[in-house]
Amino acid sequence: MVSKKYSAVLALYLPIAIFAFQTPHRGFIGSLYGRRLRAALTGKVSDLQGITNEDLQWWHSLSRNNTIDCSCGKFTETNVTDRWTDEGITSLNEYSWSVSLVSPGQSYAFCGGSLVNDRYVLTAASCVDGSIADGVEVLIGTWPRAHFLTPMVEPDELNLKMLIRKKVHRVILHPQYSKDHLDNNIALLRLYGPVPTYGNSDGVSPVCLPKPLQNFDSMNATSLVWRFHTDEEIIVPVKRTEVSSVVLSKEGCKSFNYSKEWERMPDTMICAKTDVPESSHPFFDSYDCPGDAGSALVVDGNGVKVQIGIDSWTPCYGRPKGIGVYTRVAEFIPWIELHISQDGRNCAY
Questions:
Q1: Domain ranges of the chain
Q2: Which CATH architecture has domain 220-330?
Q3: CA torsion angle 34 328 112 218 (round to 10)
Q4: Is the N end or the C end of the chain the one with fewer CB atoms within 10 Å?
């Protein structure tokens, strides 16, 4: 009898393998579809030779077979944009694809993530390495204040009313991820059932994904981080803040010469620099930014937000010198598209 784990694997890869073996090309491994399947399984586009525009279109088409009338990357605001006027504080559902990863029944975000269609969340593998699906839940949507109530946070009924909590059905780590290095720090979470307000004009929408191998050097980017409040040695996240940064080239990032791991800077990573002062964050001397790892680094793409990075190894507010390191999403598009195309609904545009 085949276990549920292997049944899922067969259901995912067998149709693609059968389709590829049926192609008339000489030798599957060296064929057009063999090349595409290898890229989808490993997710690292730059490892392969002879990538063509047709290959890129084929990977992208995988997740466009089941679409609905909605747009990805909508940068929406509601009528309550003036509820909090603190500098940089995000408005309600301004980043509607943003999610928080929490323990079951809890509301303290141990990591972040982003909705890429109505059933899948993109995050860092380091956030869920060793986790089982039953040990992770997802809170969907972006709120200016924390998802939970503390003595330092006033009750916010609107937060609670709009909160969407989803259980995780499957944790999908990249097959080449290792906690010993920065490479391939990417994972997908398949949710139990679709997000209920997905695609609605006033509901949540997914973030847009970049094209494989797309270059973003020198572009302006933004990300969300938690601002914390300290009271009697208790530090809790209170507000989410938008932080602006500039994407660096690989050589520009390596020039900071921070560590041997930093100098290596694989092609699967991307760097961005911010000028946010470190003194404003209680964890500025730590590499453990509570709730921020796994979150999206986005750029503007013709009026919509495109996710180019996953917070992977980002020192809290400026060490060294305001540099954050992210998983380069464009490098893993084949792997992402293969998984999310199985049973998720995608926005048509």
A1: 4-62, 220-330
A2: Beta Barrel (2.40)
A3: -150
A4: N
State pTM to two decimals. Answer: 0.76
Has residue 142 got a pLDDT over 60?
no
Please, which pLDDT band fits residue 288 given cuts at 50, 70 and 90? Answer: very low
Q: Is 144 left (phi over 0), alpha (psi -120 to 50) or beta?
A: alpha
Which burial class, exposed, middle or buried, applies to 83 when counting CB atoms under 10 A from its CB (0-12, 13-18, 19+)? Answer: middle
pLDDT tens digits, one per residue of 16-49? 443 444 343 434 444 555 555 555 555 565 555 4
Nearest one of 217, 126, 197, 133 to 171, comparing CA atoms:
133
As a dihedral over the C-alpha atoms of residue 299, residue 305, residue 309, residue 314, rounded to 10 degrees, the angle is: 70
